[in-house]
Write a structure and sequence with these properties.
Layout lengths: L5 E5 L2 H4 L2 H16 L8 E7 L2 E7 L3 E3 H8 L4 H20 L12 E4 L4 E3 L32 H17 L3
Length: 171
């Protein structure tokens, strides 16, 4: 409509048809549309297309931190400190709004060609009273409590694990 390139995430039919998932998706995509920060991907729209849920967001040109680590190994301290500061600011913004990201990992971070750092997935966040979508305990970056109740400390743990991976070049 406005001539901007967007990223489109189209979810599977089985997931989209799951009533629990749909309720959480609707709630959490609404949060994502209302949350703006320079280090968070901006969700433009979310809804259904046929039987499938979709999420459109600004297109972030760059490479995932996961890919950077796989290709380059350990990052210089200046780089990972800059990444950490940007992600900490993004998480603080999410937390101040009363939400928890719940999936902080190198695959959820894009480093742009101009060195900008963008945290993806803020639309699939949770409140302390609501569950997080997916299996947050499935990555080496997940806090031990990720399988139970979401907390802000869980995001801080994940950020620390991510920064250790940046310094070491691996999880």
């Amino acid at each position: 409509e406005h001539g901007h390139e967007v990223a489109l995430t189209l979810l599977s039919e089985p997931l989209s048809e799951n009533p629990c998932f749909r309720e959480a998706f609707d709630r959490e995509s609404g949060l994502a549309r209302s949350t703006r920060h320079p280090h968070l991907v901006h969700v433009i729209d979310a809804g259904t297309l046929g039987a499938r849920c979709y999420l459109s967001s600004t297109l972030v040109a760059g490479s995932s931190l996961e890919r950077l680590l796989a290709n380059r190994g350990p990052l210089p301290s200046r780089s990972w400190l800059s990444i950490g500061a940007a992600l900490a600011a993004a998480l603080q913004h999410i937390h101040d709004a009363g939400f928890i990201h719940g999936h902080v990992s190198p695959s959820q971070v894009v480093v742009g060609s101009g060195r900008e750092v963008i945290l993806l997935g803020s639309g699939l966040a949770a409140t302390a009273a609501q569950p997080i979508l997916g299996d947050a305990a499935a990555t080496p970056f997940s806090a031990p409590e990720a399988a139970t109740e979401p907390t802000r400390a869980m995001d801080v743990f994940s950020l620390a694990a991510l920064l250790a991976a940046c310094a070491l070049g691996r999880p």
